[in-house]
Design brief:
Layout: E1 14-20, E2 23-30, E3 39-44, H1 55-63, E4 66-71, H2 91-105, E5 109-114, H3 116-127, E6 132-138, H4 147-162, H5 165-175, H6 189-196, H7 199-211, H8 216-222, E7 226-231, H9 239-249, E8 252-256, H10 263-266, H11 268-283
Parallel strand pairs: 3-4, 3-5, 5-6, 6-7, 7-8
Antiparallel strand pairs: 1-2, 2-4
Helix pairs in contact: 1-11, 2-3, 4-7
Length: about 280
């Protein structure tokens, strides 16, 4: 999971429930000060993640003149969703949620999805490309996740079937190397976030990650500006696989040195700079 440096958004950020035709979604919304925004950026988090995974990107994006809106998807952290019904978490339903969010914000928008969020973003664009100025796939590959990560997700799914969320968290922490475990620093932010996720959402989206088909050719046919960004190491989708996907999409390709599967939290400054350059080029 992504480990944001803080769960506190930068000054000026509005935290609220965005009302849409498909319900309310928790967002962090930061607009540039003193001028109309050059555009709006919508940021979708990955599996087990939340809008807080983009906290370190919000200020640089807003300073560059863009309105940045990070979203908790249905059943993620502070966005409500059923706890035991997987049907609202089918990928098509989550994609329609994104289209409703964009409609509520006012398009066109630059859409960014991290990991699972990238595959949901791709599904939304394939349903209706009209509201989107560009698509960024951050550490999000062409199809299912790597075999080793499939095994990890299957283990999580099996745990969710027999344990409550607190028990699953403790089991996960026991399997993490010491440097990856929740530091338990008094606020327990990672654990608190985990406990507010819907287990049905995790089970359903975990299965999507294990079985996602390759839809790269469909996306390429849209001729939408696409940016494929990743760290220089990734266990979820190997970097050469992301390189090949970018070629198939005729996409801009950025590798953030020193970052792993979450460039947004591993190297936020370099990540923000690459993103802003890409978005500025679309308006040139």
């Amino acid at each position: 999971m992504s480990r944001p440096p803080t769960f506190t958004p930068p000054p000026g950020t509005r935290a609220y429930q965005l009302a849409t035709a498909r319900g309310e979604f928790a967002v962090h919304d930061l607009a540039p000060q003193g001028a109309a925004p050059k555009g709006t950026v919508v940021l979708l988090p990955g599996f087990t993640g939340s809008k807080e995974d983009f906290v370190a990107l919000l200020a640089p994006i807003a300073t560059a003149g863009y309105r940045a809106v990070a979203v908790d998807g249905r059943g993620q952290y502070e966005s409500d969703g059923p706890l035991d019904d997987p049907s609202p978490y089918a990928q098509g339903e989550l994609a329609r949620d994104v289209l409703a969010q964009v409609e509520a914000l006012g398009g066109p928008v630059h859409l960014l999805g991290h990991s699972l969020g990238g595959q949901i973003a791709r599904a939304a664009v394939l349903l209706d490309p009209a509201p989107f100025a560009s698509l960024t796939l951050m550490a999000s590959g062409p199809a299912q996740i790597s075999p080793s990560q499939q095994e990890r997700v299957k283990l999580l799914q099996d745990g969710l079937a027999v344990l409550d969320m607190a028990q699953v968290w403790e089991a996960m922490q026991s399997l993490e190397p010491p440097e990856e475990a929740d530091p338990g620093d008094g606020d327990g932010a990672l654990r608190a976030r985990w406990l507010r996720h819907s287990p049905a959402q995790l089970a359903a989206t975990g299965q999507q990650l294990r079985a996602e088909p390759d839809r790269v050719d469909e996306l390429a046919a849209l001729r939408l500006p696409v940016h494929v960004l990743s760290g220089d190491h990734d266990d979820t989708w190997p970097v050469p696989l992301l390189d090949a996907m970018a070629e198939r999409l005729s996409a801009r390709r950025t590798i953030v040195e020193g970052a792993d599967h979450s460039p947004n939290t591993d190297r936020p400054a370099g990540t923000a700079s690459a993103l802003i350059t890409f978005w500025d080029e679309q308006a040139a």
